Amino acid sequence: MKNEFLKELSKEQLLRLIEDYSKNWLAMDGVWFQSVEKTAGMDQAMYHDAEAWRRFTVIEAKRIKQFLQLPEQPGLEGLACALQLRFYANLNEADILMDSGQKTLVYRTRECRVQRARERKGMPFHPCKPVGEIEYTGFARTIDSRIRCECVSCFPEVTDATCCCAWRFTLQET
Question: Around 148, how many Cα atoms within 13 Å sit in the side-chain half-sphere?
């Protein structure tokens, strides 16, 4: 371990630190995005956000998959575990709903910290669907290449008012 100080922290302290690290990561993501949005406009900010997520989501998924020691094709059960270890899983309220045949999983974010922060600041909601499609598809396919993703509801195309966004993952048998 590179940081010996961490070994001295209690479990409760480490859990609080994970939450703080998650908040710091999300703040950094928002700060750079808003900087580009302010200086170059929403289209440029969305372009760079998509490019960042295209790469980051694969890195995050690979590390989580390795941490969980998931097999090459862990299916939707492996995806369900991995989704719970993403950085923002510590910050957003979400549900994972799996059908009884375990062929479909729906991931619903009930409360989104990003959208609530923009709302508090009087900013328009973040049009996250295009980036979400890149992010969730890339994450799921990195966990298991057989998993397909589709948006159920996400700003600016909200079809489910009970959540901020919802994504359906389907296991495609080959």
Answer: 8
- CA geometry: angle 16, 20, 26, nearest 5 deg: 145
Q: At what angle do helices 11-40 and 42-68 cross, to 10 degrees?
A: 160
38: part of which helix (H) or strand (E)?
Answer: helix 11-40
Determine if the peptide bond prior to 156 is cis (ω within 30°).
Answer: yes
pLDDT value at 174 more than 70 = no
Task: Provide the whole-model pTM.
Answer: 0.91
For the beta sheet containing 93-98, the strands, ordered from the edge strand earlier in sequence to the opposite edge, are 93-98, 104-111, 165-171, 147-154
Whether 54 maps to a domain, the answer reads yes
Q: Would you call 28 helix, strand, or coil by DSSP?
A: helix
How many structural domains is the chain composed of? 1
- At 153 the pLDDT is 95
What CATH number is given to the structural domain containing 19?
3.30.1380
Identify the sign of the CA torsion 33, 34, 36, 40: positive
Q: Which two tokens stand for residue 98?
A: 């799996």
